[in-house]
Amino acid sequence: MLFLLRKATIQTIQTIQTIQTAGKRQRRRRRKKSFLSSSSFEEDSDALVHFIETVAKNDFNARERVRVGQDDIEDRGYALIANRPLRAGEVVLSLPMRARFVVLSSSSEEEDEDIYSWSKPLAKRLVFDEKERKRHEVWLKSLPKEAPRVPGIYMEEEEIERWVKDMTLRERLIRSRRDHRAFVNGCCGDDEKEKRELSRMRSFLQSRIFADDKKRRWNAPLIDFCNHSFEANCFVRTNVGKENKQGKIATAEICDDSFFIARDEEKEEEYFELVVSDEGSIDVDEPLTISYAPSRSGNTNASLFFEQYGFLLEDTENSASFLNSVESVEKFLSFRK
């Protein structure tokens, strides 16, 4: 059940603490070793977890109430599917931005550092700490069967040089690949099985975390279950406004009443939304997909949110997770033509 899995995801994200950066690189690195507590989303996440627990106990009601469910698709792992027919332009999920869970906030001064460094501590805990693995067992089982081939983790240097045309980005990815090799060798020694597992875990984490232009990485419960396809049937957008009726209805499907207690009804709310493409409807049990690329209708919103997102696209044998800006998306698409 999707909601049971989301409970584990939220618990996982709550264990990841926001890293505060300092002026000097050495101080930043020392602080990265010690996660600092952040409670800005505790009240909202508790309410969401409460609802998830309630739904998990009443599975027979969930399918009627919620527009999406989950299924285990061969070779793809868990994915969002439609519980009922979804019309073009319909808001499938609307998540208040205050309900997202910040994993990491970084400064522009870190631009030259390893672009995957944030996933090291959590990956290491989930692989080597039995208590952590047991605590997040349900979430770990929900991960795709195969890890995404994230450049800088799975791609060899020769592959990066062949595929990534941007010189600056290519150099960063090669540095990340070398850093990853040193990381797994330092943690695992000669144990090839542990090396593979640590690499898989880092790729999984990279593929479940959104990023924005303010260099914050965060989890969007439910939306992060979408797989990627160039021929996507959904897109992601932000929506700001107090008159967002369709979004509020979609939010009410995944959050109980306590989630909205003591909210200022007159204040504009920002929502992170999953929306059905304008190009067609979605049938029952059809997987929901999103894409790095702008849709044929010209919608470019989705590409703003997928920096280092890491999924393996269904219709190409190469990962597009090196697309870290709107410009790189455009270059990649023009190169493919």
Automatic annotation (TrEMBL):
PROSITE patterns, sorted: SET
Secretion signal, residue range per the UniProt entry: none
InterPro entries xref list: SET_dom, SET_dom_sf, SETD3_SETD6_MTase
Single GO term (MF): protein-lysine N-methyltransferase activity
CDD domains in alphabetical order: SET_LSMT (cd10527)
UniProt-listed Pfam families: SET
Top-level lineage group: Eukaryota
SUPFAM superfamilies listed in its UniProt record: SET domain (SSF82199)
Domain spans labelled SET: 64-293
PANTHER family, per database record: UNCHARACTERIZED PUTATIVE METHYLTRANSFERASE
Descriptive protein name: SET domain-containing protein
Species assigned in the record: Bathycoccus prasinos
